[in-house]
Amino acid sequence: MGFIIRWIATAIAVGxxxxxxxxITVVGANSAIAVIALALILSxxxxxxxxxxxxxxxxxxxxxxxxxxxxxxxxxxxxxxxMTTGIFGTGILIDGFGSAFLGSVVISIVSVIVNSIIxxxxxxxxxxxxxxx
Length: 133
What we know:
Elements: H1 2-20, E1 24-27, H2 31-48, H3 50-56, H4 58-63, H5 68-87, E2 91-94, H6 97-118, E3 122-124, E4 130-132
Helix pairs in contact: 1-2, 1-6, 2-5, 5-6
């Protein structure tokens, strides 16, 4: 259930980025399906590939005081946009790296805001209650 909620939060953040960032446009007939498909691919990439890239880029991230993580996010957004248009035939088109960088910053900020409204992830405990993280 937690993945679905985070997927919805990512979809909201991607929708805001498509709306705000001038270099990001929707490709396909239905923009809502394009945003939802991109959010799905981006969520799966964030769960699987992003931790590996963060570990590999740790030395340069330490040197740049964490700014390089924004570059990693922009590259993963480009990858998700490319995969979405290839797999689903609909998605977003990013004009260049600058638009991807700005889009990843907007998605990160909106995701933090939406996730703070939703609240922390809850996991069931053996006693029948929920534990907050």
